[in-house]
Design a protein that fits this description.
Order of helices and strands: HHHHHHEHHEEHEEHEE
Helix content: 55-70%
Number of helices: 10
Radius of gyration: 59 Å
Oligomer: single chain
Structural class: alpha+beta
Number of strands: 7
Shape: rod-shaped
Largest sheet: 5 strands, mixed
Length: 495
């Protein structure tokens, strides 16, 4: 189901990423074409404006020269100063016109040299006009006419006219070229905008088609998810029913095992009690009549009966960890450990044991079983001590945090570490010591049935935790007990 959801989301995401990419590409392409066209149009329009301005400046200056020359000739022929008005107007604005002409930007290669030559010719022409007009104003018309008759002014104007004509012709040619280019750009822009419109329409149609396909895929995946969900629901219901049946069967089996353990222990203990009772009678009533071997046999029989009784009791206790456990409740471990130390007071004094312990928290658990857990661990640390040194036991506590590998949630644990300086064991036996009735030492060396650590593991597992051991032969042992802070979720006892 998760795979289908991922496929569903992945397909939808891929489709819309594809649509978005196409839209961005089309928008970017259209924007690029539009910006390029606008730039080209702006450049052509700017050049057309410049060409038109150049043509106007040249035409105005040409008219000014003609007006000045016309006024000069009218004045010299009629001696009427009224003809000098256009001449004077030209003189007044000549410098401004020449300044505009000097700033003109022409397109032809030798335009600047022609402009400079034109300015020189115009100034020469105006000097010639000014000289003749000044002579006429001084009543020296004959001298002025003689200057005019030399043809100098006519030649200057002819040169000026040629330069004007060449410059205007170039500007007009440039203007015509720009008009042609403008029409070309207009046609191209029309084609471009038609292409943009077509691509936009195709894009819209494509988006509608893709959206429709995506909706169809979503419908198919949704139906598949619903079918998968129905199958999972049926499987969960079936599995839940199986678990309920298994739980009922397990509860019944636990009750039967408990009844069997009680009956077995009672039935087994009864003949053992008789064996021990008759053995005691033999020792008390017939000890003097028994030879050395007979007394030894009776002692061995009594010892074996006692060991068998202890094994039966320990096995019964081991089986009742789950079936006879109490409901979890807050447990003050500091007070609990005080009781355990008091219980071990004689063993601690005889062995001169030193116990270092921290302040312990209150935790959720079965108080009786937690008592048994720490009692077994501390008594083992005292029991399995070196013969040449006093036991030193160090207990530490910390609250740890880890991420659950399945739910990925943060899980908090109580971690207790109990270290000692005892005889230790080889690390290869670290798992074996938690198996019931498994011993690493002979009964003559250390007393016990070999079930204490197995009981510890069962208690820790009932609380949802773990216990592990590490050691090195001759260098002590370390036991790490980890119990979840929220251990109440593991309280599933059948009382």
């Amino acid at each position: 189901m998760d795979q289908l959801k991922k496929q569903f989301l992945g397909n939808s995401l891929s489709t819309w990423v594809l649509i978005g990419s196409i839209v961005l590409v089309v928008i970017a392409g259209n924007a690029y074409l539009a910006i390029t066209t606008i730039k080209e149009l702006s450049t052509v329009q700017r050049n057309l404006y410049t060409t038109s301005q150049n043509t106007l400046i040249l035409s105005d200056l040409h008219l000014s020269v003609i007006s000045a020359e016309t006024g000069q000739r009218g004045f010299l022929l009629t001696d009427d100063e009224g003809y000098l008005r256009p001449y004077k107007r030209v003189l007044a604005k000549l410098d401004e016109q020449l300044e505009k002409l000097y700033s003109v930007q022409l397109n032809q290669d030798h335009g600047r040299s022609k402009l400079n030559n034109l300015i020189v010719l115009i100034r020469q022409k105006m000097d010639e006009l000014e000289r003749t007009v000044n002579l006429g104003l001084k009543d020296r018309n004959n001298q002025a006419l003689n200057i005019v008759m030399t043809g100098l002014g006519r030649d200057l104007y002819h040169q000026i006219f040629q330069v004007f004509s060449a410059l205007k012709a170039n500007e007009i040619q440039r203007r015509d070229e720009l008009y042609v280019e403008l029409k070309k750009i207009q046609k191209e822009s029309t084609v471009i905008f038609m292409i943009s419109g077509t691509t936009s329409a195709l894009l819209l149609i494509g988006m509608m088609v893709l959206a429709r396909l995506n909706l169809n895929n979503e419908d198919k995946l949704r139906v598949s998810l619903e079918q998968q969900n129905e199958r999972l629901t049926e499987e969960v219901a079936t599995r839940t029913q199986e678990l309920v049946l298994y739980s009922d069967e397990l509860s019944r089996s636990n009750r039967e095992l408990e009844d069997f353990a009680f009956v077995a222990s009672h039935d087994l203990q009864e003949p053992l009690r008789k064996i021990r009772a008759f053995g005691d009678r033999l020792q008390s009533n017939y000890a003097a009549q028994l030879e050395g071997k007979g007394a030894d046999y009776i002692n061995r029989m009594q010892t074996a009966a006692e060991r068998m009784s202890n094994l039966i009791n320990d096995l019964l206790e081991f089986s009742r960890i789950t079936t006879r456990g109490k409901d979890f409740a807050p447990v003050d471990l500091d007070s609990l450990l005080d009781e355990i130390v008091g219980h071990l007071e004689v063993a601690i004094d005889e062995s001169n044991t030193q116990i270092e312990r921290p302040t312990l928290p209150k935790i959720i658990g079965d108080e009786g079983q937690l008592y048994q857990l720490f009692l077994n661990l501390l008594s083992n640390a005292i029991k399995f001590r070196k013969s040449d040194s006093s036991p030193e036991i160090v207990m530490t506590y910390q609250k740890t945090e880890r991420k659950d590998p399945i739910t990925q949630e943060q899980v908090f644990n109580h971690e207790f570490v109990i270290s000692d300086n005892g005889i230790g064991f080889e690390q290869e036996f670290a798992d074996k010591i938690f198996v019931p009735f498994q011993r690493l030492h002979g009964r003559s060396e250390y007393k016990g049935t070999g079930i204490g650590l197995a009981v510890c593991r069962r208690i820790v597992e009932r609380h949802g935790g773990k216990i592990r051991a590490s050691s090195e032969l001759g260098k002590g042992a370390k036991f790490v007990v980890t119990i979840p802070v929220d251990a109440s979720i593991f309280n599933q006892d059948e009382n």
